[in-house]
Amino acid sequence: MTITPAHEIYPQYCFHKSPTITAWCRLRTSDIAKLWSPPGFEGQDVFFYNNHPIKWVRIAGVVVAVDEYTVNESTIKRVYTVDDSSGINVECIAQLAAKQPKNISLDAHSPDLVAQQRRQQQQQQQSPFDLDVGQVVEIRGGLKLYRTRYETRLQINIEKVKHLSTQHEVDFWKEVVKLHDETLSRPWVLDERVLRHCRRKAEKDELQSKKKKRPEKASDSVSKEPSTREAVNKASEGKGHGAIHHLRPPAVPQFVSGLEKKRRVKNTYPGDGLHHRHGGPSTVAVADSAVPKLLTGLERKRRQRKAEHGTNLQGRSMSRA
């Protein structure tokens, strides 16, 4: 169903400007056979008459055939073939509920069972899709592409069925001619300003949708990671308070510079290591593995003079003796 377009096919973000995309387009069955689908619109159930996008149609004609297929135990598919004398027939599909078999029981004449059977009969009688051959009907529905091994054709999924009188059928054909002359026979043309506005709006909507998706992904990743309180509560359940310490990270060894070592040595050994600078005894506990005190040049001279003075005193005492 690919036809070379005579006019430009606008992008999908311009379809809301089309007069046919949301309307029930009155068509002949031969017009439905002319609908085509360009590349890029597969599976969207949107078809084109010239360059007019069409999704919903209305046809009128005589039911010439009825076929029924079983889909499953509770659903059947009924295919109505409609002819409007335009040269081509169209298949219209209806999904119906399968008729339930009658259950034979001893309480067949009970009031509840009789009322239920009456309701089922009324529903079947009131079903608008129970059509017969020879009836003139108007069918509304959405277009659907049906593919087989040998052919591809358009079908109509029935949304609403209406029985037509002769006068209503004449009025319907007048509306078909009016739509064809005023809309479908002319190409759908958009102004360049309208086209640019639709493009900018589509780009803006796409950007906003991407921004909405990003916070959702971020919130999902954050929610997967438990908080510190939740981790502590989970670790303390059934393991005691000692299990909390397993959550603490191991201590990282700290690098100590030479200047920091000197500062620590001064704080550990105030004064000469025996007394405070104010004269009181030192209360700092010196560890066995403490770092030895670094002596300055002035301290070495003071200790050397003290040692020489002690030697002189010892020599004088020995000479006097």
UniProtKB/TrEMBL annotation:
Q: Region (Disordered) spans which residues? A: 202-321
Spell out the InterPro entries in the cross-references.
NA-bd_OB-fold, Stn1_N
At the top level of its lineage, which domain of life is listed?
Answer: Eukaryota
Compositionally biased residues, Basic and acidic residues = 216-240
Matching entries from Pfam families are given as: Stn1
Q: Bias category Polar residues: which stretches?
A: 311-321
Cell compartment(s), UniProt: Chromosome, Telomere
Query: What are the record keywords, sorted?
Result: Chromosome, Telomere
Gene Ontology CC terms, in alphabetical order? chromosome, telomeric region
Q: Which residues form the CST complex subunit Stn1 N-terminal domain?
A: 44-95
Recorded protein name is OB-fold nucleic acid binding domain-containing protein
Gene source species: Gaeumannomyces tritici (strain R3-111a-1)
